[in-house]
Amino acid sequence: MIANEPLINRKQELPLKDDSSGIFLKVMISIAVFLFAVTLAGVLSINSMLNAWNQSILGSLTVQVMPVNHSDQKKAKEETLIHLQKTVDFLKTLPFVEKVHSLNDDQLAQMLEPWLGDGIDIKNLPTPRLIDVKVKSGEDIDFAKLAEQLAEVSPLASVDNHKLWLNKLIKFADGLKMLALSVLFLVVAITSGAIFYTTQANLNVHKYIIEILHIMGAKDTYVAQQYARQDAWIGFIGGCIGLAFAVPAIFMIASLADQIEGGIISDARLSFLAWVAILALPLFSAATAMGTAYYTVKRTLEKMM
Q1: Residue 114: inside a domain
Q2: Which of 209, 212, 259, 270 has the fewest CB atoms lying closer than 10 Å?
Q3: Are residues 182 and 298 in the same domain?
Q4: What stretches in the chain show pLDDT beneath 50?
Q5: Cα separation, 191 vs 170, whole angstroms
């Protein structure tokens, strides 16, 4: 009769709701979801940052024209501008170049503002002139040959290949991702272990009730379902508590990152799908708790009975 009774109408013969281990599991799961959410936000932010770098940096290169060293500042600036114009004209003739833009004094001053402060007069400084070059998509550039050609056009011109330093940043970001993924794995493993051993201890406490249920015809699956339903609810509640603390923490970290002017981490953003994944963590914790409890009960009862 018990085996044929619909799952939704079954009564809870085991006193699981009054068990003090449920409080321990809620605390464990809430802490785990908090750590999981913050770490997952970090991983997804790093991914978005790498994508932004690939789109904005790998499709461009920077050419630098050093200022002419002369005692006469006016004459030095005029000669520097001549070298700049010759370099710009040469770059426009290259087949892989889509757009060439020479940064003016205001743009250079804005770039130097985080380091030199407000109100700097770029005209009185021997500042290198920068040329932003947008490269056509899919073009393979021989940077050694380009550097030689630039040297022939102007000995003051040099090319900055963003890939040289970007690759180092990408390796660093990949290392952070691996560290964060390791943290996620440890959080899931420790939480699952806590559920496993707590459920085993609970089974020993209610061993005699389970034996009576077996005498009445209940199978291991029936007992496992009761534990799975109870732990799923505990996992969901604990996940909601952890998420309630994690979301403000994520916004606080993001606000601190926004205060870093000119920083490369400003490209780290969480997309809509990233937030969906983070907000779905209570469901993930409920599913993890339910699956772990069901497996633990089935495995333990097979050995006990």
Answers
A1: yes
A2: 259
A3: yes
A4: 1-10
A5: 31
